[in-house]
Amino acid sequence: MRHAIILRCAGLAGLLLAMPAMAQDPIHLTVKDHHFTPDHVNVPAGQRFLISLTNQDDTTDEFESYDLKFEKIVVPGGTITVHAGPLHPGTYKFFDDYHPDQATGTVTATQEP
């Protein structure tokens, strides 16, 4: 019994070590007047990361990205957090689905030398 528990713990530890690292601090965005600030962010390739979005509009927004595979509603005055990555080097788009012509932005994943 004890041996089985040790093997399970070792297996779990191996899975955790194999997972991509999470970038340290969340990326903070705001949406105001149907525009993201900042509207472009850089992240390291190969790492998971968090994006925190605060809605300073007086309407509900839908933070979405086909490229990053997330979609989340954020109410006026609210803040949401989404997980993304790990990403291959490149540029990925995000937008407000309720105002897709105004509120757009990008994430660029870069490989560190």
Automatic annotation (TrEMBL):
<dbReference type="InterPro" id="IPR008972">
    <property type="entry name" value="Cupredoxin"/>
</dbReference>
<dbReference type="InterPro" id="IPR028096">
    <property type="entry name" value="EfeO_Cupredoxin"/>
</dbReference>
<feature type="signal peptide">
    <location>
        <begin position="1"/>
        <end position="23"/>
    </location>
</feature>
<feature type="domain" description="EfeO-type cupredoxin-like">
    <location>
        <begin position="19"/>
        <end position="109"/>
    </location>
</feature>
<keyword id="KW-0732">Signal</keyword>
<protein>
    <recommendedName>
        <fullName>EfeO-type cupredoxin-like domain-containing protein</fullName>
    </recommendedName>
</protein>
<dbReference type="Pfam" id="PF13473">
    <property type="entry name" value="Cupredoxin_1"/>
</dbReference>
